User: Fold these one by one.
Assistant:
Number 1:
Amino acid sequence: MANCNLVHVVFDRSAQNPEEDAAIFTMHVRGTLTGLPDSLVSMTPGSRDAWSARFDNFLDTWKTLASPKVKCVALKWYDLGASADDDMGPPVQVHVKNKAGVASGQVLPPQLAMSATLKHPSTGGVGRHGARWGRIYIPGITVDALDANGRFTSAACQVMGDAVRYIFQPAGTPTGCRSTIWSRTAWSHFDPNVVQVDDVPDVIRSRRFSTTNYRYRVNV
């Protein structure tokens, strides 16, 4: 489906541990047309370029909260299939990035992330039947973003929330694109009207260290 793309946002973590794979969060971006905000139009290289430039602004904010040991290295674009069972195939476009964090604090364990929840007007509550919502898990955050109780500070939440809000606004004119929520059950888009960033770190088990550098064992 060329009118909506899945985007893999790829972060290199090898500076934390050379054995680690990339951390990825995914987003959906749909084609738009000025004056017809709900219409789906084909994504183009130019609309992807416009979104990539908008995403750079997000990265410029992210890096102030993130460690130099984590670096965004690519945006990989895939055309969605006609249904959830279709193979998307190889990327239709790749934007190479080279943006690392600049925060000086100790990086948090790799399985901890700052999450941004995207809410559609249908959302009666995340997890409720029929609610339309999405979430991205932002890696590389340092202890500088934590308060004395281990929660993200209100300042960090607000800065990140504003940055995520920016990438959910339309990019490019007159034919452009915008970030959206894509439902696998409805196989359709639902544009969010609220971005929410909570102060509780999320745990993404798939991002934890895959190997141990040290293990202590003692017989009982």
Number 2:
Amino acid sequence: MGAVGMFDDDIYLKRLDQKVWQFKDNAPTRVELAVLEYLKDQGFSGYFTEHFNYENTLLGMMCWCNRDSYFTEKRKSLAVNRISDAFDYAQDGFYTSPPFKTHKFYHSDLFHNAEMFTSEKIKEILTVWQRKNVKSDFCGRRYLKPRPASDLSADELISFYYAKGGKDYFLSYLEHFFNSEVQALKKRSRDSIELLYQNPSDNLDVLRTDLWSSSLHLFQCLSKGTRVAWDQSNHHLDELNSKISAVPDVKIRDDLFSLARDISDYILTKSDGIDRWLIYSVLDLEVWDSQGVASVEVKAPRDRLSVSQKKQLEADVKYNKRSWVIYVHEST
């Protein structure tokens, strides 16, 4: 048992070049993928987190694609590429149309889609994605660009879905980061700022932009799911309050101050319960077996854990989440 995480593990792989490693006689590759091959040989399933994010994939399927109308759409690409976009561009979301191109659904529609989701839909939706040659962040990333759906496996997604805890886990995630309460706060913010846009005064242009930007950054912090972002929310709230004080219209200013107080109350009431959901660092590999999901950090010779990685491993211990570090050594 290591000092942090679930345990530390030492494995030996062939090193063919400075950044090229090989497990058994498999194709040479980067060290994280070679370790993933080792873990699969040990009975795990898994993926490299720089390439895929199955949670995001499944949330996209659940909220955006689990509706009859999706299967008859002529559009080939997905109208949204991240789960946050699905909620922010909703009719009752943060963005306004125009100037932004919002979609036609409401928060309640997206949640209803998720609540009606079953594992059988994973293969059905992925088949449509692959037939339409979808490339999206919902499918992962490849060389900093959206990954094609052809790189995804329905069987792996279904296996991961159940390993995470099935629909209950994903609905709980949505309740923590995209609940109706925070959606209502986004809409109130949008509506108040829109009132300023109805005033033609050029003197308000900078203020309107500043208010919009501060509000956007604040709400992004509340839905990003990282410890750093959540901790920054109070900073952005202070920034928002300073901008509100410059609003000349008394009614709008009072409404915005009231909104800021409600956002502050929301952060305060959610902070304790959300702690176990926030991440300090995304570790290299996400793997799973019959015991559930685990996160694995891979370290080649002379690599060291960062401060955020150590905090993540310590948080995993605190909340009984499986995680460990694999230290890779050159085989002789």
Number 3:
Amino acid sequence: MSNPAQARLIFHKNSFFELATPSRTLFIDPVFSHERRGRRVADEVRTCDYVLATSMTPWFEDVLDVLDACDATFVGSHRLTRFVSSELGLKKSRLLDLEPWERASEAGLRITALPISASIGMENAIEEGTSIVRDISNIFPRGATRIPLLGAALPLFDNGMRNATRLLQGVTSIGQPRAFGRVGDMLGVDVGQITGGRPGLGFLFELDGFPSLMHLADGVHAATSDDDLDDIADVAEPDVLVMHVSGMDVEPVVRAVRTLRPKTVLLYRSRDPYAAGRRGQTLPISSFIGAIEEGAPGTEALHMRKGDAYILAAIAPEKASSAAARTPQASSPFASPKPSAAAPPPATPKP
């Protein structure tokens, strides 16, 4: 199928990564469609062995298209697995729901689910709205306040956006209690978006004879606490770390790199912030790379652009990564029963 001496991680577009191993092909948040005049247009999809979803991304319809076109197994949270089952009526043998910290495995491949809070949501929209207000103010530097309705509305709206941003930052700092999710289910609202993002899963991939790979998607942002990162570091310190970056704050990204201590960090962006004419405040990825090089000098930071591939070269057994998940394994199609409660595994003392 592929070169037995290497595995490849390919960034296609948006949230779509493909992990091609010598024996398996895994799609992570696949996207094959495109937009035309603001509407989704489905394109031809490719087949794979596993489809993994980190969260309910804006392109989740493509996940359904891939599963409908082939016999791939879906891997995701219980909530997403239930949704996929209701939409497509897949057999249970093609569905693998993982709770945070659960591990699934087959010969030569182990996948561990990691809890994240997906950040594509309310916070970015508020930042973008604030920048639009500033643009309008720049267009009418003096005359805007003389227009009766516009002049009165702009200061109020600008102050409201600033206060909402500060409020969200305060709410996200206290975390996301489980009660928020139950309230959201009752009201039909994804409360996770209001408190910093949607509940989601990152994934740790361990391939026998290859460097370990951790994909955290858009799960590292201002609302990501030190405890969140420490819990993930207790599971593994990966060789390669993949993260989505956006906004103006480089500190959470640098903090994640320092805590997880990867050898290489791959940074990507799901959307061009200026492609649709929007003016959200977003630093270039080179700024994040520079901050990592300064704050975590032992780590190589790279920018993954559309179509880029990162080669995971085979390593000798004696040099195999020490990253290892220490949780019970999950159910079919991999192996073993699930644990009764989802909790981060205890750290193994280092010699």
Number 4:
Amino acid sequence: MIAVSTIFLLFVLSICNAGVIFHEPCPLDTIEFATKVENSSFVVLGKSLEKALDQRSDTMFYVIFEVNCIFKGLAIPRHINITHAGKIEFCDELFQRENSFFLGQVEGKTYCQDFPLGRGHTIAFLERNPFELNNTEAFIPADFVEIPYVSNVTDELLLNTCGLHQLLPLESSASLSDVCPIVSTAPQCIPILELTSLGSGLYAHVIPGGSEHSIDNIRSKSGAISVDVDTKNAADSINLSILLILMAMIYVRLN
């Protein structure tokens, strides 16, 4: 009986080893953070609370995820369910240990996900679950690899990525400054004011990322004149000084 069990175990191990040899590995994550943000409906910071095999498929897992801060998208519940993530092979289900998963592509997608337990916070790129649109807690990963939150490195990444915001999840009582890193404050993310002359009036509008453009470059576009706030304040001060001088000259002549 022991011999039969040993032979069966060796047989299963040989199949697993063969699967690892011939299985196509997860592709290297070479997608830039800004690209992931642009092509995801939700970008959130949080951590995995629970991770388990999806009962409907032995190639996927689901995650119960705690959202701490939302960088893109509307407010969502603090606790959400992420399904259709990663891929788990038969051998890993058979010899599964806590937090041990063999990752690969979900059908129809290119990249893998991990959502590790007990390894700190993660920035996740998500979409609404198309099969549960009425369920506000149901999400699936966008076709990108999530990234671990490493304070100094990730903070700089968030600062230099334009178009992000800080938003608390629903039912959160946390302070925004305590759970949300500062985002989108780099010079290229700060807009400038453009004044455009149309007929007899001046019309103002904001140019996102305006600090990337010099005033001279903007003036060359269709006769539009662009100024920042400090320049406009200086011009107002000069105009006031000229007006006061003219009033003084008129007063002297009249007297």
